[in-house]
Amino acid sequence: MAADTGETAEANLTVDELAARAGVTVRTVRFYGTRGLLPPPEIGPRRVGRYGPGHLSRLALIEELQHQGLTLAAIERYLRRLPDDLSAHDLAIHRALVASWTPDKAEQTPRAQLERRAGRALSEEDIDRLAAMNVLERTEGDAGTFRVDPGLLGLGVQLLDVPIALETILAARTVLIEHARSTARELTRLFHDEVWGPYRERESDPEEVEAMKSLSAHMQPMVVQALVTAFQRSLKQELRATYGG
Questions:
Q1: Which of 127, 168, 198, 238 is 20 to 30 Å apart from 24, CA to CA?
Q2: CB burial string 135-163: b at 16+ within 10 A, e below
Q3: Neighbouring-strand partners of residue 142
Q4: Whether 138 contacts 146, CB under 8 Å
Q5: How many whole angstroms separate alpha carbon 240 and alpha carbon 245?
Q6: pLDDT tens, the chain, 245 aa long
Q7: How many Cα atoms are found within 13 Å in the side-chain-facing hemisphere of 148?
């Protein structure tokens, strides 16, 4: 796993700050480092390790893969297959697509904890924008607590600083959701027709049963990685065709 994935561009977080932002313990951060799941920090003055956006994005991706039920060994294999030059934003795209496989869930989050996870103070305008993007909901009767979608929080916070009108962001979100659903529908149909159908005819064979179980366990991350790669390449082609370069 390459260390140069954009982590050092703004490596200004201590290990304690990184753990608080990611919602994990310092021990977990260090454990992932020893297993090679996280690149080493940038060593600053007084030999203090500093972490950046790439470390935070990688921790979020690991968390989502764990939510999918992948073992640590499977997560290591998944991360090793990623390109060496992925930036923090590239990792965020991977994480967002992985999160799309997880059932919708919201967490009751006090404002202080929300701001810790966001890594910044949130104004009322920020809260309104996050609510419009369905990142969070205000809790009735408790102005200091919110129902937060952890899978969208990181992306929503990043969009707060993007100089694009909220209406444009929501329109882009609609396009992504519609096309993602269409892709999921076609992939499901293909799996049902080409894989599940023939398997049903051979399900009395123990080896076939085990093969299907193995395929089911690995299919989601494989599909997610294929979608990310295809989307990134298509986006680069479209941007090149539109703006040149």
A1: 127
A2: bbeeeeeeeebbebbbbbbbbbbebbeee
A3: 139
A4: yes
A5: 6
A6: 334 444 444 668 899 999 988 888 999 999 999 998 998 898 878 888 889 888 988 998 888 788 777 788 888 888 888 776 777 777 776 776 666 555 556 788 999 989 988 888 999 999 999 998 889 999 887 878 999 987 778 778 888 988 888 888 888 888 888 888 898 888 878 877 777 666 665 556 666 666 666 666 567 667 776 777 788 788 888 888 888 76
A7: 23
Backbone angles phi, psi at 82, to 5 degrees: -75, 150
Position of tokens 């499901």? 188
CA distances from 130 to 57, 124, 174, 226 (A): 19, 10, 16, 29
**Cα dihedral 189, 195, 201, 203 in deg (nearest 10):** -120
Query: Does domain 7-99 match CATH 1.10.1660.10?
Result: yes
Q: What is the DSSP letter of 46?
A: G
Of 51, 20, 23, nearest to 38 (Cα)?
51
61-89: b (≥16 Cβ within 10 Å) or e:
bbbbbebbebeeebbbebbeebeeebbbe
Residue 48, number of CB atoms within 10 A of its CB: 11
Per-domain residue ranges of the chain: 7-99, 107-160, 166-243
